[in-house]
Amino acid sequence: MDIVISGLLLGGAYALVAMGLNLQYGVARIMNLANGEVLVLGGLAAFWAFVSFGLSPLLTLFLIAPLAFAGSWAIYALFLRPLVKRAKSRGQLEVDTILATFGMSFFFVGLMVSLQAEYFTYSFLAWPISLLGSTVAANRLVAALVAAAIAAALYLWLNRSRSGLAVRAVAVSPGSARLVGIDVGKVSALAFSLGGMVTALGGCLISTFVTLDASAGVLFTMKALIIVIMGGVGDIRGAIIAALILGLVETAVATIVDPGLTLVAAYAIFLAVLLFRPQGLFGRRSA
Amino acid sequence: MSERLKLALGVLIALAAAFVPLIADGYWLSIAVTIMMYTALSTSWALFSGPTHYIALSTGAFYGIGGYLVATGMSDFEASFWTMAAIAPLVAIILAGAIGAATLRLSGVYFVIFTLGLAEMIRNLVSWVQNNFLGARGLYVLTDFDERHIYWMLLAVTVAVFLFGWLLGRSRTGFALRILGNDEEVARHVGIDTARTKILLFMSTGFFAALVGAIVAPRYYYIEPNVVFSPELSFLVVIMALLGGTRHLWGPLLGVVPFTMLWEAVSAAAPNATTMVLGAAFLMIVYLIPDGITGLAAKLIRTRSPS
Amino acid sequence: MTPGRTILEVQGLTKRFGGLIAVNDLSFDVREHEVMGIIGPNGSGKSTTINLISGALPATSGSIVLEGQDLTAARPHETARFGVSRTFQLVRILPALTVLENAVAGAVFGHKRRWGAEAAGFASGLLERVGLAEKAAQPVSSLTYIDQKRLELARALAGEPEILLLDEWLAGLNPSELQIGIDLIAALRAEGRTIVLVEHVMDAIRSLCDRCIVMNSGTKIAEGTPTEVLSDPHVIEAYLGTE
Lengths: 287, 307, 243
Known about the structure:
By secondary structure, chain A is mainly alpha-helical. Helices cover 75% and strands 3% of the residues of chain A.
C-alpha cells in the first residue's frame, strides 16, 4: 500500500512533466531533449526563492509560470523556428532539433553549475501525514495535488476552449489546420511555450521532495520521453496513465529490489512498449 | 583522385602515424592516444549514423562494456587481457543486434532516446550486479602495456575501421545504406531489407566501440563502472564526427583532431566549463556548419571556382 | 503480344483502417504481357490496392499470389525480390544520388540482381530506353518533372520485374508531356511487359489497357475491356452519381 501511494504521488509529478514534453513534441514537433534541464531550472528557482527570501514554492509557481513561458517562447522564436523553416523533411527537422536541444541542455547544465554547484537542498512541508493508512511526506501529497490541478486545467483548456481546439488540430495535422485558417507557426510557438512552462512548474513541485542538482535533468528527460512514448505521442490521457505506471513501477523496484535500479526498470518498461505497443497504450496501429 | 592513389595515401599516413610514439612522449603521446581513440570511435560511428541519420548515443555504453569486461575478466575470473579483448566486442555485437532489432524498425526518435540513457542504465545494472553478486571489490587491469602499446593497438583498430569503411563504400550493403538514408520507403521497394541493413551497421559500431574500450582499459589501471560507462564520451564522439562531416570516410578525422585539442585544453584550464563547451559545440554544428568542416570546405571551393 | 498465362492472382483482398474499409473483398487476375488498369473515383481504394500488392501495407484478409508465390504477408523488400516493382503517386527520387545511381538502385537489390559494371551498364540501357541517356551523370536536382517520372520508371524496370505497378504515373504531366508518357508506356507494352496501372487519365486507359477493373468505395464494380467498362451504367453512375 505504501508503494502504491508513493508511486501514484511520484507519477502525478511525472505526468505534469510528460504533458509538457507532449505539447512540445506532439504539437510543435520539437523533440526537446533539454526538457529535463528546464525542469531542473524550475527546481533551482524554487530553491533559490526559498533559501534567499523564504518564499514558499507554491508562491514561486506564480513567478515561474510567466518567466518559463516567455523564456520558452524566446527559445522557440530564436532557435527552433529557423530549424523548422529550413527543414526539407520531418526527418531532418528531427535530427536538427535533437542536436540543437542537446546543445541547449548542456548549456543549461553549464549555466546552473556556475550558479549553484551544490545540491538544491531545502526543507518544505517535510512533515509526515497519514493517508489511507500509510505515511507520506506532506510535500509529496501537496505536489501531487497541485500537479493534478495544473494537469486538469490544461486538459480542460485543450478540450473546451477555442484555442485549445486549434492546438489539438495542429497536433493531428498541421497541413489541414493551415487550410482552416489556423496560424500553425503561432500555435506551435504557443504549444512549445506552454510545454516549457508546465515542465518548469513540474520541476518546482518535484524540488520540494526530490533533491535536485544541476546535472539531474537528463534522467527526467529520459523518463518524460518514455512516458510520452508509452502514452502515445499527443495523447494527454495516455501520458497521465503512463506516468502513474512509471511512478508505481519505479517505487516498487526501489523499495523491493534496489533504489539504484529505477532507470533499469524504466528501460524495461520502455523496451516492452517498443516491442509490443510502439503506437502507445491507447494508440491504434496505423498500418 | 583515383581509388588506388587514395589507398596509397592512406597507407602512407597510417605508416607515418605508427612512428608518432618514437617522437612524442609524455603529454603529446597521451594526446595522440586520445586522438587515435576518438578517430576510431567517430569514424565507425559515422559509418552508421552518417548515411542513416540515426543519432546513436550508445558509444559510451559499448565502450564501457569493453572496458568493464576486460576489468572484471582479469580481476574476477583470471582471464587474460587478450581473451577479454576478444570476448568484449562479441558481447557488444549481440547487445547491439538486440537493441537494433527493438528500435531500428521504428522512427529515429525512439532510437535516439533509447541510446541516450543506455550507458547510464547499463552502469546501474552492472554496479548492482557487482555489489550484490560479485563482491564490491575494486577491478584492476594490470598489464605490461604502456601508452605506446595502447597507441599502436588503437592505430591497428583505426586502420581496420577505415578499411571496413572503404570496403563498405564499395559494397552492396554500402550502396543500400546510401539509398535508405535518402528515402527508406524507396529502399524497401527496390528490394532492400532496410531493418537488417541498419542493424548490421549498428552492430559494427558496437563492435568497434567495445574493442576500443577494451584496449584503452589498461590506461585506467583501476576501473569503476562510473568511469568507463561515460555518457559524455557518446556526446564527444557525435560532436567530433559531425564537426568533421560524415559524407567522407576521412571527414570525422578532421573533427577529432581540433576538438580533442580544444577539449584537453578546456578540461585542464577550466574543468567547470566543459559542459558549456559541449553545448556550444552542438549549437555551432547545427546553426553554423551543418555539413561539417568537409562540407564547408567543399562549399568554399565551389563558390571560389564557379563552373 | 497476346496475353498469356495468369501471373498475379488477387483473391478476396480486404483492407480495413479502423472502421473504414478501404478495399473490400477484391478479386482479379493479371495475365502475362497484359496492361491492366485500375480506375475509379477518388478514394475508391485504387492506391491502397497498389500498396497492398507491393507490400507497403499489410492486408487485413485475402490473398495475393504471384506466380505461385504467396505475397500476402510479404514485406516490401520481399515483394520486390519476388518481382513486383512500383512507382509512387508522388514521384520519389533519391536526392543525393546521381541520375545513373538512381537507376542502378533498382538493379542491385531487386528481382534480377546485378552489381558493379554490369548493373551500371544495364541501368544505362534503361536510362536510354526512357530518354534520359544524356543526363546520366547529372545530379537529380537538375531534372524536370517528367524526367523525374522517367527516372522513377527506369528504376522500377531495373530489377526486371515480373509485374510493374504504376500508381498514377501520368498524373501532373502537361498535355505534351502526357503524350510522351503514354507513348513510353505503350512502348513498354509492346515489349511484352506486364503492367498494372492506376490512372485517372481516360485517354491513357483507352489507348493502353487491355483490361480494366473499376472500383468504387473499395469494391470492384466492373471488369472488362476499357470500352466495355466505360459504357457500363454502374461505372457511369459511380463517376457521375445518381440522378
